[in-house]
Amino acid sequence: MKKKLSNVQIIALGFFLMIIVGALLLMLPVSAYRKISFGEALFTSTSATCVTGLVVVDTALTFTPFGQGVLLLLIQTGGLGFMTIAVFFLKLLRKRVGLREKEIITEGLSSSNINEIPKMIGFICKGVVFTEGIGAAVLSVRFIPLFGVGKGIWYSVFHSVSAFCNAGFDLMGTYSGEYSSFTAFYDDCLVTLTLTALILIGGLGFYVWADLCYRKTEIKKWKLHTKIVIITNLILIIGGAALFFMMEKEGTLSSRILCSVFDAVTPRTAGFNTVDTASLSGGGKLLTMILMLIGGGSGSTAGGIKVTTLAVLIIFAISQARHSKSAFVLRRKINKDILQKAMTVFIYNFSLAIFGAMLIMIIQEVSLEDAVFETLSAIGTVGMSTGITRDLIPVSRLIICMLMFLGRVGSVSFANALLEKRAAPAVEYPEENITVG
């Protein structure tokens, strides 16, 4: 009898097949201005599908409009999840969405209510089209005068989708030099703030969207998850921006404020940059690494351990300091099972990043700072780099690919599925204390 694949295994297999198909499409002569190797195509396809943004070739200077279109499709599908797209088309064709499909979508969106799925898919797709459309329209105000109507519209759409999906791919290589990202727009409020808004909206999580849209300003009726996501995001944005402002002192007052806000948002987990990442101070790089590890909201286009994971860990740490038997926040008690899940996700992501960095340093000559920065960027599906991505040898690139893949699938509870015991023995063992702390 064939063993039935679990929901997470189906999701992982789906992403893997997307990556392979994407790599083959990028290798077509029509996709690139020059012949690219399978390794380059595989790395680029993995980065796009896992909405990361790490690149070994400049996107604009290497790929034709067709190749850029392939990347855009991979980014959009990878950001929303391939099953979300599939179910959306089933609904358009008026086909029945089966229980199995609903279960997979539930896993992918980090949801607990399977009955909400059909309604949520329509809501998500409408919200995505609306948000990305508004973002593209605003960006076109700047890009059409710069690049002309056709190219300006294409650049607006591409970067709106890339920002919303927290992908970090850009086409600015032809404008401001290869691998330059948005450094030429560091003091441009329209471009910077539009990208910031798209990144934040995409990183909130689809169930937070629904809560905000249906309950609007009735804050008392918001779910605890929504309140924690919004509060934690505000703390990270304001606190992060303030710290960046104090540590990075180059530029005028207005440009420093703008760059500080963007630097506090883009590591969670967009990957764009308006300041050369390699030029950041030591404190700026450390803060960026912390933000990359945290990421965005559960069930969103962002990666990382998620802001709710961070919040739960802090809440339980405070409750322990107060010698409280239970953890409470906003007049709600948090189940200890949630703490166990949060700890699993944190340990899984952090350990993979450190182990990956150690492997890369063993394989080739890379500094500790650059290696850890790169692996945290990969596992958090961020896409920021100090510039070593192009210098990595094939084996090191494969390690980064694996981290990007695990980071994306991990955002749909792969860590828990990996450690899950499907048939736990029906045996009770004697309990014994261990001294910790």
User: Mean of the pLDDT scores?
Assistant: 85
How would you spell out the order of helices and strands? HHHHHHHHHHHHHHHEEHHHH
Main sheet summary: 2 strands, antiparallel
Gross geometry: globular
Low-confidence stretches: none
Report the portion of residues in β strands: under 5%
Instruction: Look at the helices and sheets and give the structural class.
Output: mainly alpha
What helical percentage do the residues reach? 55-70%
Q: What distance lies between the first and last C-alpha atoms, to the nearest angstrom? A: 48 Å
* Main sheet strand line-up: 1-2
Number of strands: 2
- Write down the Rg: 21 Å
| Count of DSSP H/I helices | 19
Topology (elements, then pairings):
Layout lengths: L6 H20 L11 H12 L9 H4 L2 H16 L1 H11 L6 H10 L8 H31 L1 H16 L8 H4 L12 H16 L1 H10 L8 H24 L5 H13 L16 H13 L12 H15 L5 E3 L2 E3 L1 H28 L4 H12 L14 H17 L3 H6 L18
Antiparallel strand pairs: 1-2
